[in-house]
Amino acid sequence: MAIDMSQFHQVFFEETDEHLATMESLLLAVDIGAPDQEELNAIFRAAHSIKGGSATFGFSDLAELTHVLENLLDRVRKGMLALTAEMVDAFLRAKDVLAALLQAHRGAEAVDEDLVRALKQELDALGEAAPVVAPLAETTEVAPEVLYALTVEIDASEARDISGLIAQLAAFGEIETLSQGTLDPVAPWVLHLLSAMAQSEVEETLAFALDPASFRVHPAHEPDVPSDVPSDPGFGLFDDEPVEPGAAPLAAGIALEEDGFGLFEPLESDSEKDPLEDAGFGLFHPLPLEVAKSAAPIAAVVSASPTHSAMHVERAASSAESSLRVNIEKVDLLLNLVGELVITQSMLLQAGMDLDPVGNERLINGINLLQRNSRELQEAVMSIRMTPVASVFNRFPRVVRDLAQKMNKQVELKMVGEQTELDKSFIEKLSDPLTHLVRNSLDHGIESPEVRSRKGKAPQGKLTLRAFHQGGSIVIEVTDDGAGLDRERILAKARERNMTVADSMTDVEVWNLIFEPGFSTAAQITDVSGRGVGMDVVKRNIQTLGGRVEIDSLLDYGTTIGIHLPLTLAIMDGMSVCLGQEVYILPLTFVLESLQPLARDIRTVAGKGRVVNVRGEYLPIVALAELFGVQQAKLDPTTGILIIVESDDTRLALLVDDLIGQQQFVVKNLETNYHKVDGLSGATIMGDGRVALILDVTTIARNNQKVAQTLVSALASSAA
Questions:
Q1: Of 147, 160, 545, 665, which is the most buried if we count CB atoms within 10 A?
Q2: What's the pTM?
Q3: Do 560 and 580 share a domain, yes or no?
């Protein structure tokens, strides 16, 4: 029975995406002057895999373009053509077009056929114009193209879509119908295929559409083989051995390579054969044909040993068993269920606190065990969602290369910490902001080679992408060694736009002006930047992820733009605090310590506020009850609790009534269910069913930063 191929399309799409990404990364890293043979083989394998899968699933446009690309890659990897920069550029454009064709089959906009046709012509022209490593006339041994002559027999009762099968096989080479199948009398379809595909590859292709028992693939007997060649098929035990007239017997020196039925090592052969041309999954192998350009009959050579292919199959199987593709929606559902489990565990924990520990020892021990298992389960599920930022970083070598060429700049890209893991939901939304920051660094930051030379810099600029953990957050930095931000120019541009600015503004305040909508200091508008659209969007997108953007710059030395993000937005460790009759949650990553101050440690600055002396350091006191308008809360620090928090290098003392406890909380998005509230980052459900609000310590610290600086300055002045 024929198999519905559409059910495998998603797997094919994902695997093709991986092959295209592999091709791009290898092409960007290849040394054009001295390319590594293994890298060239890996690029060829990726293209070959795409072609095979495309033909199998009937995506002829992908198969045809990849076939042209594969032919050129094959000549380069065999040393018949020298690799050039023009070839690499064309290969990268082919990768882009293949990706667009793939998206078109996923439902996106169709690709212009003229574009595909022009690319094929360009690849063909490069093959003709490229310098030959060794002229054919001077080469003593020229490796001819290796083809396989195969006979394909298909049961007529199973060949419902024989025309589709023939079309699929035709994409791999020349095919001829020797006889048509019939049901009465029973006779199979017999096809002759001349292709670079080995027998096992043809069998795998047909197995997608037919029951393996309904077809047979075996080496073909060429009609133009001399008549004195033995025609005995060997009763299915031996491959045919071609013998030319007057040829010496095997004992005279012709070595037959075969698999030895698992008992003997294969004999060495003087002729070398690329193992990639033969997958070798079967016991016996088709006979490859060396096709000469002369009119002489096709001469067959014996196929290679399956040792390499068997190892390849074993490695592929091992790799497949080590990973599993899972729909992200299933992971999200699992994460939500774990969140509900954490809430239930919190309810049981709170209920257990009221029980007699002696009479209910087993129940309390069970609740404690549930708490530990819930935490381990939560960490395990969260680790499934964590993805290395390399999936985002890996697209930038191509972006930097193309933009640097377009701007006539020399740029070296360095990536650090690519294996740092981040929640997948962040990974998907991080690409656009990072792309804009990288483009800005290339356009506004890094100067042209001439300008850099006049400044005493190396002609080649440096751009660094770095990811690392910092406390409970992940930081991603984009650093360049370019011109840096010009403070005076930014202030002048701000005044032109009637923005309220002052010369006394700090550098950080000046740098933050570039995040204003429509703000740009570019001298001219280009297709890369200069329209004042982007940096405000970058900041807004990062803030929606619960993060922030920071800038550090020095004129003529470079700029660093850092993106600070929480590790996840799903579950957090927090401290619950009491304000009057309300309960609030403090993320534990910001908490340094808590204390109950003495009256002598509290100082009041007239008209400014209060500070507390903590081991010689004065910290401003922020009364959360006043900030959120909570009634019946304590306002005297000596009767309440001060919680010392730190964010953005700013320390504050938050005044609360009392501490309730520390535990895990499931974060619920406040904006989705209500709207954005300044100073709050979300909400959670407590063990008793009440809703508690989660404090946004970063926003509270930033809003009170100026107040803190004013208080400390005023206190220092009065002390002096």
A1: 665
A2: 0.54
A3: no
